[in-house]
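Worked example 4.2. Below are the chains of a multi-component assembly; read each line carefully before continuing.
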Amino acid sequence: MNPFRYERARDAESAVALLAQAPNGAFLGGGTNLVDHMKLEVRQPDLLVDITRLPYDHIELLPNGHVRIGAMVRNSDLAADRTIRTRYPLLAQALLPCPEGTQVGGLCYKNYEEKNGAWVVISIFFRRPLQTPRRPAQPGL
Amino acid sequence: MDLEITLQVNRATRRLSIDTRTTLLDTLREHLGLTGPKKGCDHGQCGVCTVLLDGRRVNSYLALAVAHQDADIVTIEGLADGENLHPLQRAFIAHDAFQCGYCTPGHICSAVGMLREAEAGWPSVVSTDLNAEHVTLDDHEIRERMSGNLCRCAAYANIVPAIKEVLP
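Applying the procedure described above to all two chains together yields the following structure tokens:
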């Protein structure tokens, strides 16, 4: 892994400002994909801006009945959230097969084929029941 | 680049200076001498590196230590209460739920985290009712929820009853 500087962002503005000064930098969210790719040297940022402590990890039911999902919400928390399970079961079902990473990681990572983001985008845009792959228990497990 | 960080590890405060590239797993094993969590696949896919981070199970190989300042970390070494083994540790022994033992620390830590998720009502992909009030951990559910932990010795047939042993 290439050496890199690490900075923890205080707020969204400072996070953006830090990265604006580092063309080869990257935001660090959950790190599920980024850290693995850094180990493989697929990505070699020279600065990591840690955004994990920013206050965007809530799921809010809004007065108009909609739901706001913070960008830092973990997919596992999202799939387990009672409001999501009740109001948006398709979203929970789409995430359960592989509930890793965060919303911001899944939707903003450069490759839109990344598993979590793909399921979420597909389920929203196609607006039809989505048969999530249910893996039966393997023999001997 | 080295940074000073503080971690709470197995109820002890540990201060250390580490390179930003150091994973939590390497921090625990190489810098703190806690060799319970293991390095297996090197990509956070096999689960032998599983520890508890702020009460949740995580693949410590995918976590950068510098990003977890002040985190509360529990490894397999921290599950026992002195000489009193954790109920899951006793159950794994009673059910012969390991052979070489390499995956066992990760399995047990993962099971601790998994049981907390189930207690909180988290569904899994095999749950028949997404909105069930309570989770019933049958064999099917346990296998699915533990599917992130691999055992090349195939002790699964005994791991599942070991976990069932500690269910309330």
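Take a moment to check your reading of the output against the notes. Confidence is low (pLDDT under 50) at residues 107-141 of chain A. The interface with chain B takes residues 1-6, 8, 28, 31-32, 35-36, 38-39, 48, 50, 52, 76, 79-80, 82, 85-86, 89, 92-93, 96-97, 132, 134-135, 137-138, 140-141 of chain A (CB under 8 Å).
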